[in-house]
Write a structure and sequence with these properties.
Blueprint: H1 3-11, H2 22-37, E1 43-48, E2 55-60, E3 64-68, H3 74-84, E4 89-91, H4 97-107, H5 125-135, E5 143-144, H6 145-151, H7 158-166, E6 179-180, H8 193-202
Parallel strand pairs: 1-4, 5-6
Antiparallel strand pairs: 1-2, 2-3
Helix pairs in contact: 5-7, 6-7
Length: 211
């Protein structure tokens, strides 16, 4: 397949494989994998297994840009990525192998820190400050919303920090589950409080007060 043909396919956006037959699916995946390998795609995505269902992860040439929980429509996730970043999106599981491996190790309790490159393109300036502070919280630790806001340069911005954490496009890897209310209550979580408890328990940070 020529470079011109691959680029024509990419301009149509991510292939819709829902109603395709087996041969069509295989052909589309081959196109996607080759596009990712040869650098024609701007965004690659793939499903990722987790203890609470299938996540979807997406990466750009800069790094991991999105982790979507199972209840998030992959069509909506891809549409937003296409609108905000690029329509040149392919499903390319091999490109996400490092992400899948590190998440598998994390969920198995064998990894305490992620070594993945991150793409911060979906995050605004204040949110970026908040989430960079959040990414620095060590495994098994936690901070309050007020503490994160202060670290991000806005001591009175606990509510704004909470909004930035709720909009975190790369949950788990950027561990917004490690941010709690002052006094230790769980607070909120974009993936739901049951998942927040699960992740804190996995890391050994779930105190009796939080149970």
């Amino acid at each position: 397949m020529t470079q011109e043909k691959i680029e024509q396919l990419l301009r149509r956006g991510a292939p819709d494989l829902q109603d395709a037959g087996g041969e069509a699916v295989a052909a589309a995946r081959r196109v996607s994998e080759r596009a990712a390998e040869e650098g024609f795609a701007d965004i690659s995505y793939a499903p990722v297994d987790s203890p609470f269902g299938t996540l979807h992860a997406a990466s750009t040439k800069r790094g991991l840009v999105r982790v979507a929980f199972p209840e998030e429509s992959i069509e909506s996730v891809l549409e937003r990525l296409a609108r905000r970043l690029s329509p040149r999106i392919v499903e390319a599981p091999a490109s996400l192998d490092p992400v899948k491996r590190e998440l598998d190790e994390y969920f198995a309790g064998r990894r305490r820190a992620f070594d993945l490159a991150l793409d911060w393109s979906l995050i605004g300036p204040f949110g970026r400050r908040v989430l960079r502070m959040t990414a620095a919280i060590p495994y098994g630790g936690h901070l309050s919303y007020a503490e994160i806001a202060a670290e991000a340069g806005s001591p009175r911005g606990a509510r704004a920090a909470g909004n930035a954490l709720g909009a975190n496009p790369i949950p788990i890897v950027i561990p917004c589950h490690r941010v709690l209310r002052s006094g230790g209550a769980l607070g909120g979580y974009g993936g739901g409080l049951d998942r927040k408890r699960y992740l804190l328990e996995l890391e050994g940070a779930l105190t009796p007060q939080l149970r």
